[in-house]
VWA domain-containing protein
Amino acid sequence: MAGLARSVAAAILLLSMTTFGFAANKVIIILDASGSMWAQIDGKPKLEIARESLRTVLQSVPADDEIGFMAYGHREKGSCDDIQLIVPPQAGSASAISAAADSLKFLGKTPLTAAVKQAAEALKYTEDKATVVLITDGLETCGGDPCALGKELEASGVDFTADVVGFGLTADEGRQIACLADNTGGKYIQASDEKALQEALVETVAAPAPAPEPAPAPAPAPEPAKPEFNLLPTAVLAEGGDPVTDGNAWEIYKAKSDGTRGDYISTEYGAYKGNLEPGDYIVVASDGQAKTEQKIKIEAGQVYKPLFNLNAGTLIIHPRPSEGADVVDGAAVVIDYPGADMPATFYGTTKAVLPAGDEKVTVTIGQGVVTETIPLAAGKTVEKDMIAGVGHVVANAYYVAGGDRADGSGIGFKVLKAKKKIDGTRDEVTYAYGPDSKFDLPPDDYVLIATVDLAVVEQPFTVKAGEFQDLKIAMNAGVLAITAPGASKIEIFETKKDINGSRKSLGYAFDQKYQAAIPAGDYAVVSEKSDNSSKEGSVTVKAGERAELTVQ
C-alpha cells in the first residue's frame, strides 16, 4: 500500500518537475472524482491515496508556479457535465488545491475527454503554452474519444501537452488512454508498479538542459573548513516541549532582498540536518496544519541551530453515530482551525496537529451534523468523541409482504420530513437507489417514498438515535412483461377513463418488448407500429406475481 502511494506521489512530483519546474507555463491538474475512486487498494480508498499524494507533492511546488485544479464526477451521480475548474491557475495555490481535493465527494461518472478539453480552453491553449496533468482511475464513460482529442489539441495548440497518470489501471486499460498523452507529446505513467514507474519517469526527466558556462573568475580565496552540517533546526509544539521528529516537514527557500521567499530549494522531513551554501534563506517548519518560518543567514564555517515554536497542539476526534457506537470510518470531520484559509477535511478517526486556539469541529454522518468548538492549548493533546446523533436505516422494496424482494435497476428511495408545510408539501431530506439503500438520519418522523419502476408507495417511519431499522416496503405490485412483435412503441394505460374519456398513461417504451413492476390491477396495453396502426390488449396484474401479455 505504502509503495503504491509513493508511486502516485512520485508520478505527480516528477510531472511537477518536468512541467512545473522547467517550463514557464500554466498547469491544470485534473483529478478523477468518480465513484470508482472509493475502491480500495490494500484496504485504503484510492481517493485517500490521491488526496495524500496531492497534499505531499504540492508542498514541494515552487510558490510562484501557476497551478490550477479541476475535478469531475464530484457533485452529481450519472452526469457527464459534472466538470468544474475549482482553483484557477495561480501562484501559491497549493493549500487551496489540497483543501479542494479534501472536500470532494467521489460519486459520479468519468467524462475525462471533456474535462481535458475544458482545461485546455481555460489555459488558452491556442494562444499560450499549456500543460494538463490528468489523474484517472478509470476509462472514459461519457462517449468522448481521448485519442482524437489529443490529435485535435496538438494540431490547434501553440504548445499543448497532456500528461496522464493511470491510477490502478490494468496495462490494457492504460493503452486505451495513453494515446491522449502520446498524441500531444506528453507522458503516460502507469501508477501500479512503483519501481517501473519511477524508472520510466527518471529516464524522461533526469537530463535537464546544461547550464551556461560561467565567465572566467579570479581564483577564489581559500574557503574555511566546512562542518559536516551547518543547519540543525529543531521544531517544538510549545515552548519547552520535546522536539518534533516524526511527520513534520522543512521547506527551504532562498530569501529575496526584501525578506520574502525566493527560489525553492528543497523539502526535508523529520529530524533534519542540512548543509547549505552561504547565503540568506527562508526556512518553513510545519507539522500537520501548524507552520512557522524564519529567515536564516548562513555564513561559511558556522553552524546554526534555530528553534521553531509551532505553537500547536494535537486534536483526536472519534466520530460516532450515537453514544457507545463504533466509529464511522466514512464520517466527514471538518476542522476550521485558527488562521485557516479553508477548513481541513478528514474522515473517520482523526488525529491532527493544529495551531493552538479554538478549533471549530463539524462531524457529518449521513444527514446528522454536530458542531463543537474545542479549545486546544499549545503542546497539549485533546481526545474527544463527537456524537452525530443518528439512527441507521436500511430500506428494501418487496413486491408483496413476505414475497420476493425487488432487485432491479428501477429501485429508488426518497426520504421526506413527515410534517407537511403550510402549502401541503414536505421537505426532502435525502435519497438513494438500489436494494439495501442506507440512511443515517437524525431523530424525527419521516416518510419514505419507495419506487420500483411504475409502482410507488409511501411509508411513514420514526428514527431514534442509536437504533437500527430494517424497512421492508410492501409495494403491492407485480411484474408485467409485454411482447408486441413489430411494434415501435408499447404504452400501458389504466383501464378506467376519467370524466373526459381519457385513460391515464403509466409508462411506455419504444421497443417490441417492455417489462416493468406495476401496482396490482387491470391495465390496457396499446402497441403502435411505424405505419400508425395499433393493437390493444388487456391484462390483470396480481401482487407478487408475474403477468405476461402478447399484443399483435
Notes: The two ends are 60 Å apart (CA to CA). The longest strand covers residues 83-91. Residues 1-24, 196-212 have pLDDT under 50 and may be disordered.
